[in-house]
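Inputs:
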Amino acid sequence: MDKIARIDMGAPGGPKVTVGGLGEYAGLGGRAMTSLVVAAEVHPLAHPLGAENKLVIAPGMLSGTTGSMTGRLSVGCKSPLTGTIKESNAGGQAAQVLARLGYAAVILEGKPEGDDLYKIIINKDGIQVIVDNSLKLLDNYPLVEKLRAEYGDKVAYMSIGSAGERKLLAASIACTDPELRPTRHCGRGGVGAVMGAKRVKAIIIDDAGMKMRPPKDPDKYRDANRKFVEGLRKHPVTGEGLPAYGTNVLTNVLNEAGGYPSYNFKDGQFAGSNNLSGETQAALEIQRGGLATHGCHRGCVIQCSGVYNDKDGHYLTKQPEYETVWSHGGHCGIDDLDTVAHLDFLDDNIGVDTIEMGVTIGVAMDAGIIEFGDKAGAIRLVEEVQKGTPLGRVLGSGAAITGKVFGVERVPVVKDQALPAYDPRPIQGIGVTYATTTQGADHTAGYAIATNILKVGGDVDPLKPEGQVELSRNLQIATAAIDSTGMCLFIAFAIMDQPETFQALLDMLGSFHGITMTGDDVVALGKKVLSAERDFNTRAGFTKHHDRLPRFFYNEPVAPHNQVFSVPDEELDTLFNW
Amino acid sequence: MNITVKLFATFRTGRFVTQECEYPEGTTVASIVETLGIPENDLGIMLVNSRHVALNHKLSNGDTLAIFPLLGGG
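Outputs:
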């Protein structure tokens, strides 16, 4: 990865590709690359859908190597949903393939005049940008099917559905999995709308003729990777729970702990949770001839995904994640996995973030557009998004917009991004992350659930405000670093509990680059990324008053713990003090 | 006293999902875990009435005890 490609979509006479060296971005990958480029090069007051914004696509530092779990792809820009800096990452094949072609980043710049729609082909011979108006308003599944007829199955596809073309604020960017299904999404923050604004419909990445990226010290890298894989296989979370049940194993945990937000955050438990649980889902997938264990990219040893078939045994969608099952399930008062799976397929196909879309449907239910629990109604609303009707455009622009349009007071967002599947009142640590992260409400930015609820990597009482800011700070720093390596964040469960597995990760990073990596280096990397993101947000007009949860979390206690969020504002304001 | 025990994920294999049982006064979480044949090393979290508890926690009549292996997701 010794080059950066810049594609000026607005160049006079048509899109212009320039390939250059790494310059000041040498050594960066993933989130570190996307955030440092956006912070340095995008005007903080730029309109996110304008020519001044950039869409930075970056494989992780170890992507494209023989290292396992290294398949995360980061996409960064100024977010049209939040107005903050944004990094959204996904699995799938794209990161590995792009990295093997030598690109540390592909940056989409500018904005073309007119209505033409483009596809970008990246292969060993270079980069081509081609007009293809036959792709207009195709959703992701038919789009990839059409592209496969031309470019085959030995490539990776990144694409936007109709939502991205319409520049809806919940629009995602899809990456294909090993079976060429567009199921792995850079979901959060409307990154698909930025790609749509640049009129790029699809990126076809073909690494034919390229080799794995070679480590500086191959023997040490191989040895470190072996120890790393051993560590992941022996930890109960990464070696047993996630492979067997997927992320949705959390439905029962959060429901039992009273932190499962239901009926748009009116209750902390849901009577229909067992019907939605990971245990139920895995059994159903196996019974219908699907898969309860599946990797989203080659080289994954955790295999937390799966294949969800319909009642007739036909592929319906990939195994819906916990947050998806929650947002379309308990949050909407729906306890039917087939409905959730249908909605997951629609979201992937249209190209919208499953968290934002599901939370928005719940807000629409609170507005009385349909009743809580209305399964057919929920599907109908997402189909409105697909059709691009005025109602669909409102819903596809997320929970904050929908709440405003329909006069709803209880709108669970921070910086206009929807809260995920964990109530911050009985789980105060995740509330700190929601409030303070540079990304708008986001659980992955500092996953305090691990320590508050699951008791992995330590134990901090979820019901008390004490210790939560320090916990969230440390998790946010570690996450920013992991998001830069190309590693899946789920490795954190094993490296937090097993020092030897953390050391193996450090040795992988060190031996690949021919240096020695320490824990302090990882912390420094995380802080560097967060500081750049925070600085961008400050210049974009964000203050400490934006680092707060919606007022109802401070005013309305939620059962069964009957608590409100109680971490003091002054403490939240110290999160980035280092 | 009457206790509802709920098991999750791999702990259900060869056991049960939910069971109501009579236990003597003073029964601890540890003794129920032992009765169920769950090795301590496999334990993740235990919740009584939605609150985290330790193994030496003494149960009361009408409690719901949920026992999980170490789990993660997100």
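Remarks. The interface with chain B takes residues 235-238, 240-242, 244-250, 252-253, 256-258, 269, 278-279, 304, 321-323, 443-444, 447, 449-450, 453-456, 461-463, 489-490, 493, 560-561 of chain A (CB under 8 Å). The longest strand of chain A covers residues 103-109.
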